[in-house]
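User: I'm curious what two different proteins look like when written out as structure tokens. Can you demonstrate?

Assistant: Sure. I'll show them one after the other, since each token string lines up with its own sequence. Here's the first protein:
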Amino acid sequence: MKIEKNRHLLLLDGLLQSDGPITAEQLAFLSDSSTRTVKQDIPLLSSQMEKEKIAVIRALKAKGYVIEVLDPEKFALFAEEVAVMQRLYYKYPIETMERRMYIIQSFLSQDLVSLEELEEKLFLSDSSIRKEMEWIRYFLSTYDLEIRHQGGHSYYVEGKEEDIRRAAVEVHCSQYHDFHQSYPHDGFNIMFYRDKNTYEDIRHAFLAILRDSDITISDIAAKKIPTYMCLVKSRLQKGRTIIMNEAERGELKATYDYQIALKISEDPVVKAYYELPENEILQLTKLILANRDIDMRSRGVKGLYKEHLVANGQIYNQVKKEVAGHLGESLFKTEFFRFFESDVLSLQLMLYYKYRFDSTKKDILVTYSEGNESLISPIPMEMARIMIMALEKASGQKIRDPVISAYAQLFEKMLKKVTYPYRKLRLVACSTEGLVYTQNMIENILSRYQRYIASAEAYDLYEMRKLDFSKYDALIHSGWLMYYRYPLKAVSVKEIDYQYSSSKIFDSLFKDGYDRSRIEELKKMLHVFPETDLGDIDSFVEKMSFRYGVDYESEIRLYEEYKEKKEILDPYLTRLHSFLTFFDYQYCRREFVDIYVGKEPGIYNETMKTDFVIIACLNPNNPISSLKIDNHIIQIFLQVDGTINKVLEDKDKALDEMFDRIVEINFVGY
């Protein structure tokens, strides 16, 4: 099915990502269009999918739209195609990116490229083609490739053979699922194979050997490496070979991965296609190393080269020093972090292999990510950004690898382990039924909620007069009204019985035990500024840097850091449909969460519109539990419509309600 408009791509992605019915209003928000446009587009898209026997879009009365699958196999391929296109076209119009892909393919498959021929093929003016060339130069530069002028209108790509192959594989892999293209480039495609069965055979042989080894690689690498193997034959036929020095050859030969690469090269299916020279086997070793999927916690370090583990550990120690004083530092000091430390080391080792044997600065056109990055909460994503920037400093290389999403999801998981500050309740129980019944009441409560209870004592009714009620938080009774005369919160045991919901139990008994000190601080820190001129978001953040920085040097550094983090977070920020940035505490020296509501939507990266901007600065020395509360409050602002209006009406009440809802969800989940 050919998807020609970004709006249609966003609608389909929204439908595919939704776990249930999704309304026209929600789809309009996701696609930056009106509900009227959505209602016009849905029948068209449904008709196209039905024609190709993929699926149909059903409208459920008062609920929204759902996708009904017609052919599971076709639907699975279509869903993957949409996911790939969403990654490829998230920032630029489909037509623009299709032209760019054709131009890049021309440069990577031809010795010389004529701009006049490109203008004719793509129906572009001279000025338009030269404008597109700016992006082409940028993309190729991330692979250390340059475009050189041969004379007249002819140009060519200059760079190492290894880098040319990497760029070619990345571009080819953006077409894995054969989505319809306006400008197919046959010359580029036959560089890899003339018959796709060749690719399938090599891929199956490659994966069969890996399955019997101690090596695991990422799913996207399971396609990219066989694609690379297909490309090698045509490059060798053109006399384009890989060059390696002796030190690099020696290091690669010492690895377990080299032994696996040798087995792959000797496989009958591979040998029938070509005989791999020694340097090509070593290059295959580099690709396997660079695309390792490592989990040291569950799989240990079997098959990993000792020298690489030592080097990774040294970098990790540097990174820990770099993150000190930054947001999330307190998370690294918690006891349970030790349990997750091997996961952090695993992710870092994958990056180490990537920048050691490949590159982490490449512009990645397509990745596989089944998780929705927009659902990752803000502070874990910021912590991932801090980790990536610390790794950049330690390694001396730019990191634009999609592993940031894995870091963020790991920090999200860690933050969920953090408990909210809670003062356990001191309970007293009383009943006219006698002590045995009363003690059973207590045991029933303790069996379910012991985590929230410090002590529980049983008394007969007549004994209540001797008690010092200041030593207790609540009275549990058997249901008579007489108990409400005591100077203590009285809760009937019936309200704690199994027939009552956890939400009601929370509200009647346990809510007051949660420490509200952080929410009281947030009431002072939070400010909403309505009717703000947002305009271009980058320019707005630059202006805010001068507002919040404690001195001139801090003002400059705030904006420079914003530009640095933008390079890392850009693919995720663009998908949020709202805008948040954190300012470093060392440059502001005060905590704040400020929300700027625009008179008109602000524009980010020329494509994303946002109605408001959140700028936050949090003290990294705060307890991790405070950070968790901050995270949930900010996430509510980003994801729940109408929250900002509630704050404008009554800030204290809105924050109290938000906090109550957060801890209630935590309690009910428990």
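Here's a second, unrelated protein for contrast:
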Amino acid sequence: MFEWLNLDFFSNDTWMAWGIGLLIGFPLLSILFGEMLYRIEGGSDSRKSLLGNAQYLILPSLVVYLLLTQVLDLNSNNTFVQISSTILWISIIYLSLSVFNIYWDSQQTEDQWQSRVPSLILNIGRLFFILFSFAIVMAQIWGIDLGKMLAALGVGSIVLGLALQDTLGGLFAGITLISARKFQVGDWLKTGDVVGKVTTVNWHSVTLKTFENDLLVIPNSLLAGETFYNYSRPERVHMERVVIDFCEEHPPNMVRKAMLEAAHHADYVLDDPAPQVKLIALENDAGSYEAQIWFSDYGDIVKARDAYLSSAWYAAKRNGIIFPYEDHQMYYFKGSDMMLGKIDTIKDDGIEAKLQQLETFELNPQELALLAENSSVQRYGEAETILKAGEETEYIYAVLTGKVQSFVRDINNKKHTIGVTRPGSLFGVLAGLRHIESLTTVVAHHDLQIARISVTTIEKLIKSNPEFGQSLEMEIENSLKTINGIRYHGQRNKMSEGSAVIDQFGSQVVNLKDVLKRNNRK
């Protein structure tokens, strides 16, 4: 009764076995792949793509091939078998490339050698793999003679190479440049007399965007044969040398201090790496000093040089250092005021009168004279940093002319502008009197003059005028409360009574005129 179950049945009729196997196996494998795709729904797109290719390409083409060859028993020379076999091998080649791409992408980290291989080389390798695989398929399945095909391709390649030798030269030069990875998009290059930022790199040319906003296209064959500078490698941080001449009568250490001060106050100039100043020549009654300044990107070179040279000019004026041409002017024209840059510039002996005019302090004549005696006039240019957050200071500053602007950063490092002061205001009070690091950064809003007052002198005045000291301490507490409100909440509209202090203080900015008037009313 059950003799038909004998295994000889399957051995004699293998087509039946293959048919039943395909009938059962194909749905089961489809369900298995579908379940695997469902389980990795939240996984990487590459794995889902790989399983999808196996389910929708490899599996159907394999089933069709087995159906034709094992169930229908068609020979390998049958056209339908050849087509199905070709489709199957194309699917396998495509899946192999997908597996390679997934592996390669997983190794694309900075510490792996794969990240340094240009994409052009990868594309060429993929192309050769596809052509080689295609040739094998055509030879094994369709019986095409590869020898004749290669001979025809060889003759055609020679003719094509002679016709396109310049183009191919540029192509291989481009491959050499790209594979060497000496530069990339975003780097600043100098070739010949031209400096520009790399905007495009391809097989035949490199495009630079100059400071004048022009595009320069350089053929790879030309660039490969020339020497070029890359100002963005090995690091984007760049060092620039700025040479300034001063009169040789000034001690070198004094000049170095002023030039380092200029670097400290200049925008774009980094504190780390630290700037350096070197005396490089003494000739023609002048000393030539070279400042080595660092900034974050070569694209800022024009702005950084401008900021440093401007800051160096103001630093020289603050320290009484003159340039060689100013010495000539002073000798012939007696233009001692000319080097100050303005006819209405305040000198040290005019501090007392200016402070009295601005009513910055309501002190008796003896106290005001003591304050002026221990003060000096300092000049700063627009955008120069006068006091940086995190610095300690031994001075308190009074604004004589111009305005300063104050900034503070919250706990998220977001910058907040918290005040623009007027002449007659002080800043640095909190850091100076509490002997702590400054909580804010104070920048010159316009060209200005300030009186730099020793903290020791202010402390003497507080001792001689206790009411003044108590009022000043109260205002400092309010200022500190305001600053902390910004730093830890990041919102100006939550300051309540501190908001009135901002306009009056500008962070550590205090107008003592109103403080003393309130004391007098009490």
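A detail about the second structure: The mean pLDDT is 78.
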